[in-house]
Amino acid sequence: MKRVSGFTLLEVLVALAVLAIAMGAIIRAATQSIATTADLREQTLAGWVALNTVNRWLLDAKPWPEEGTRSGDSELAGRNWRWEARFTKTADPDLRRLDVTVRAASGAASTHLVAFRGTLPVETNNPADPADPADPANPDEAQNPRQRQKPSNAANRKQAAPS
């Protein structure tokens, strides 16, 4: 009797079990990668919404409120985002803190950003400072403080006598 070469049923079942376990691990890793990519995309977009909100408040000429909360909606990348801005005092009376929290329209907080803004000091025009560009007594400085007129050297030049 001749023996036929090939795999037995038991060997095929063991190979299929090993393959199923390996494929399960590969699918799980791919799913985690996709979920991580989606989370990073959401955090990035929420960070941009937070930066836009902070910049909007920083560019506003009006002073920030002493304390309080403001909220609003923004749209970015075809999605709606909900932001909340919380103003608080700091130990420095000339400095305000802004905490911005951004979340997807139907989700948990995606990002949190903190910004600070100081109050501008009151400008004083010091008449004792001759280089003050706002000094009306010095019109050349008011036009361009970097271009100062140099004194003429005509008195210091020697006239060459013809020989």
Secondary structure topology:
Blueprint: H1 9-59, E1 68-76, E2 79-89, E3 95-104, E4 109-118, H2 139-143
Antiparallel strand pairs: 1-2, 2-3, 3-4
Explain what you see.
The protein is α+β, with helices and mostly antiparallel strands. It has a domain at 9-118: Pantoate--beta-alanine Ligase, Chain: A,domain 2 (2-Layer Sandwich), CATH 3.30.1300.30. The chain is 34% helix and 25% strand. The chain contains two helices and four strands. It has helices spanning 9-59, 139-143; strands at residues 68-76, 79-89, 95-104, 109-118. A four-stranded antiparallel β-sheet has the order 1-2-3-4, with helices on one face. A hairpin with a 4-residue loop joins β3 (95-104) and β4. The longest helix has 51 residues, at 9-59.
Summarize the structure.
This protein has 163 residues and is an alpha+beta fold.
CATH class of the domain at 9-118: Alpha Beta
Outline type:
rod-shaped
Output the strand order for the largest sheet.
Answer: 1-2-3-4
Order of helices and strands: HEEEEH
Q: Please report the total strand number as a whole number.
A: 4
Mean of residue pLDDT?
A: 80
Corresponding CATH superfamily of the domain at 9-118: GSPII I/J protein-like
Biggest beta-sheet profile = 4 strands, antiparallel
Structural class: alpha+beta
Q: What's the helical proportion of residues? A: 25-40%
Share of residues in strands: 15-25%
Distance between the termini: 134 Å
Number of helical elements:
2
Low-pLDDT runs: 144-161
CATH fold descriptor of the domain at 9-118: Pantoate--beta-alanine Ligase, Chain: A,domain 2
Which architecture of the domain at 9-118 per CATH? 2-Layer Sandwich
Rounded radius of gyration (Å): 36 Å
